[in-house]
Amino acid sequence: MDNPPEFEIHVSVAEQTLHLLLNGERVKSWPVSTSKFGLGTEPGSFRTPCGRFRVAEKHGDGLAEWAVLKSRKPTGELARPGGDDDQVLTRILWLEGIEPDNANTKDRYIYIHGTNQEDAIGQPASHGCIRLRNSDVVDLYDRVPAGTPVVIA
After folding, report:
1. Model pLDDT for residues 23-64, shown as the tens digit of each residue
2. Is 27 helix (H, G, I), strand (E, B) or coil?
3. How far apart are CA 7 and CA 112, in angstroms?
4. Apex 5 CA angle, 69 and 122, nearest 5
5. Which of 8-17, 67-76, 79-88 is the least confident region?
6. Most buried of the four, 29, 59, 84, 132, by CB within 10 Å?
7. Residue 119 three-state SS
């Protein structure tokens, strides 16, 4: 029996890029934004954690691009580009830390998600999460299952 394909997500903070690997080979890359407050795991720090994770849950199946999510539920609204608020849009891949130093990641609500601030993609700009353009988060979401390993470094 054939083994199912194995995906892995690698986020490079230095490059502000997310790489999708399939069976160890890079198949796609997208620009991202990590935290404008730097790296860390402290609750309330708004920093992006580093280390090894897994996609614990996925939210947003079938939602329109730019759909607003609050507490992982669609509000029925579509966001507009820009603004100062850090909106969670389109899809959520909720991360769970699997190392002692980042074990609080799920409790900190660290996601890979779409954003209303697409113009800031490619530079640190988030409040801790990994932001992608809305079309890119749909592409990633549709490719990877829950349980997919994630490395942020």
Report:
1. 999 999 999 999 999 999 999 999 999 999 999 999 999 999
2. strand
3. 15
4. 45
5. 79-88
6. 132
7. helix
Global pTM value? 0.95
Measured between alpha carbons, how far is residue 80 from residues 49, 50, 68, 116, 118 in Å?
A: 28, 30, 10, 6, 10
At 98 the three-state DSSP class reads coil
d(CA 52, CA 27): 20
d(CA 48, CA 17): 14
pLDDT of residue 104: 97
Any idea what DSSP says for residue 7?
E
- The label of the residue with tokens 């100062």 reads 84
The tokens for 143 are 């490719």
- Report residue 53: phi and psi, to 5°: -140, 180
Over the stretch 87-108, which tens digit does the pLDDT of each residue have? 999 999 999 999 999 999 999 9
Task: Give, in order, the Cα–Cα distances in Å from 81 to each of 28, 61, 126.
Answer: 25, 21, 15
Query: With the CA atoms of 104, 20, 31 and 62 taken in that order, what torsion angle do they form, in degrees rounded to the nearest 10?
Result: -80
